[in-house]
Every structure is written in C-alpha cells, then in structure tokens.
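Hi C.,

You asked whether I'd gotten around to modeling the 374-residue construct. I have! Everything is below, sequence then structure, no commentary in between.
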Amino acid sequence: MDKQSKKEIMYERMREKKKEVRVVRRIVAIIALVLLVIVGIAGFQMYNFVTDALKPVDPESEEVINLEVPIGSNLDSIAALLEENGLIEDARVYKYYVKFNNESEFQAGTYGLTKSMTLDEITQSLKTGKVYREPLFTITVPEGLTLEEIGTNVIAKKTDFTAEEFMAKVQDEAYIEELMVKYPTLLTDEIKGENVKFALEGYLFPATYPFYEEDPSLNLIIEQMLNATQSNVSQYQAVLDEMGKTPHWLLTFASLLEEEATAQSDRQTIASVFYNRLEQDMKLQTDPTVLYAKGEHKARLFNKDYEFEHPYSTYTNNGLPPGPIASAGLSSIQAVLDPADTDYVYFLADSTGKNHFAITYEEHLQNRDKYIGQ
C-alpha cells in the first residue's frame, strides 16, 4: 500500500471519529436537555406544592374546628393533628416551616381554628395557648405517684370516682387489652409480664389535665394520661431503637430516678450510677423498690427489709425491677437517655436532700459517716 492510500485511510478514520464525536455530543445534549426539563418540571411542581402548602387551606372558610392538643404533644404529633383535621395541607411542610422560623413551646389545650388561618396564625395560637373554651376543671398528677396514690390522692379527690373504682378499672383485663390495641407501640406484652404488679403502673403521665365536661369517664381520664405518655415517649423512639430498648424499660428506669430524686438531686448523675452498676453486674440496691415491693411507706429501712424477697426488690435481684414503680416526669425520662459520664457506683442523700457520690465503697462509707452517721 502506497503512502497516499495510507493517508486517505487515516483521514477517513479521522472523519469517522469526528462524526462519532458529533453524534455523542448530540446524544449528551439531548439527554441533558431532557434531564433539565424533568428537573425544571419537578422543581416547578415542588414549588407549587410548597407554595400551596404555605397558604391557608380555604381562605373563605368560617367553620371553627375544635382541635385538642394533648399534654406533652411534640411537633410531629401536632403537625399530624393539624393535617388530619384539614387545617394545613401537609404536615411535613408545616414542620419545616416551624423549624425554619425557630418556633417552639406549643401549649396543650383545646383550640378553635379555621381553615382560613395562615400557618403563622395557627402557630401563634398554639404558642400563646389561646383556647376556644375554658376547661370546667383540671386534674394534676404530680411526679412520682404510684397508681394507688393517683387513685387516692387525685382521682378520689377531684372526681366522683372512688380510689377503688379507679384501681378496678386500671386492673380490668378486658380494658387493658383494649388499651394495648389502641396504644400498640407503648403498651406491649411487657406490661403483662409474670411479675408485673400493675400493668399500667408508670404509664399515666404526671401533668395537669384540662377537662371540658362535668363528669368525664374513667376511660377518658386514663386515656388522657396515656396520650401524654405516648407523646413524650414517642419522641425518643429512635433513640430507644438504637439502644435496643423498649418504652417499658425506659419508664421502669425513669421511675427509679423519680423516686430517688429530690428537689436538689442530679438525675443524670444518679442515672450514671445505675448504668455503672448494671455494667458491673452489681445490684442496684435502691430503697424505693423495697418500699414498693412491701407496699409500705417507711422513713427508714432495716436489714430485714433489705432481705425481703420480692421480684421488685433491687436488693435481692439483679437488674431493673419487672416494671415501673411510679409515674416518672420528663426530666427523669431524659436523664435515662442522657446520663452523666461518671465512674460513680454509690450515692446517698443527706438530711437536706443533697446527694453525695462515690466511686469506691470506702468513699461511700466515709460519706455515710460524714453526712448520715452510723
């Protein structure tokens, strides 16, 4: 083959490659254009979706919708309630709106809202606590009460129901089954464990509850409290899942902190003591579990009390008791999930309620002699 022929072949190959490059460029340009159109359409649709979601659902509506925001509701549950009642277009957009505007501190209550309200108007109503109607009466459940104490000190004093009627209701097997269906993630089979004293112990959240009818049923009263517990616990479900723990474990642990804590107590540090003891396979040895096991209120425990054999006693059993021993407040729940980082395995409270912590048993004995005496 002569040089001229070789050149012609080379030029032909170059022309073919240039054609291929032009074709590829055209294909790439077409694909890019199609993608740009798709992105543009999606962006336009998303813009319209968000824009519509930020507007009042029905600017002309004058219908007042009564919205009940339970005690302890978080942003997720409030946004879901608003969407379910047709007061906003989309719960996700509302949550982003609230977070973007750094809004918080929503208040429980019954609100009279309309579909003509803007997101800002709805938010401000929920923050200021302007309710559509005033409650006829309220019930306050303090932190740290047992079911029996709630029945005696709260229900019997604030309603027409007796403590016996209340206790009969919270132990009614058929009613408990109904509640387990209604609150499947909160009330699991753990509440029916063999050694659990009362299935609903620790599940009635301590708070102040408004009531808008003169004679609310026991069902309504109990379920108001369960709603509050579910709202408070559900916000930590992801954390519990990551830890491999359950709401029952959380409420049981938190109840120990609630009973051990005083006004001056550091719940996070007490939580660290319990964690450290559990990790070292030490008994928790917390007095309130003995008192709960014996069903007694005593200012001081003696050796025979500590030797009392019972599933709830953390002096005779390792680990947590079978279930909660009281209703824990939010601060105790949070302390369980965010304990202090310490090496303490002992603590005691002096006569003023101040806690003194120790790493070794010798230090603990020194604290006992110094702050309590022999």
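If it helps when you're writing up: DSSP finds 15 helices and six strands in the chain.

Thanks,
B.
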